[in-house]
Amino acid sequence: MAWGKEPPSPREMAIALLARREYSRAELATRLQAKQVPADEIDVCLDELAEKGWQSDARFAASFIRTRVLRGQGWRRIENDLRQRGVDGEIIRAALDDVVEQEAIDWFELARDVLVRRFDSPGQTPKERAKRERFLLGRGFDFEQIRYALSCL
């Protein structure tokens, strides 16, 4: 992206990133650090963006959750991925609760749907069942949801 003769301010860089998609505060800070922006300037910039409502970890988390549910991922994987992106645990829990309520997400049915798309039977041997269980575990579903999904095949 051509910025002209003068290097962009941290605010301009952050806004350019946010214009494409939502970012967590920690992700933005990492991106700005990579561009050699001093830490104190990053904090001031991100505080300003949050005050104006241009950056919100809660909004980022809700958007992230919706996207990942559409990909067929379970709540455990989603929660872990959000933590890795620097989102606070309380924000994650609140966003999960809100999105589950708004979108009427049933984790058990989602696990079943994901399993049905990938496999046509619960598996005849213990090895085949274990393969299906590992698949759903990797997707972030808990054991009760996996048991339910396997019982529906």
Structure overview:
This protein has 153 residues and is an all-alpha fold. It folds into three domains: 10-51, Orthogonal Bundle (Arc Repressor Mutant, subunit A), CATH 1.10.10; 57-103; 107-152, Arc Repressor Mutant, subunit A. It has helices spanning 10-18, 25-34, 39-51, 57-70, 75-84, 89-103, 107-118, 126-139, 143-152. The longest helix has 15 residues, at 89-103. The mean pLDDT is 95.
The whole-angstrom Rg is 20 Å
Shape call: elongated
Uncertain spans? none
| Class of secondary structure makeup | mainly alpha
What is the terminal separation in angstroms?
Answer: 51 Å
- Fraction of residues in H or I helices: 55-70%
β-strand percent reads: under 5%
Quaternary state reads single chain
Reading the helices and strands in chain order gives: HHHHHHHHH
Largest sheet: none
- How many distinct folded domains? 3
Mean pLDDT: 95
Number of helices: 9
Number of strands: 0
Function: Modulates RecA activity.
Domain RecX third three-helical: 106-150
Domain RecX first three-helical: 11-49
InterPro entries: RecX_HTH_1st, RecX_HTH_2nd, RecX_HTH_3rd, Regulatory_RecX, WH-like_DNA-bd_sf
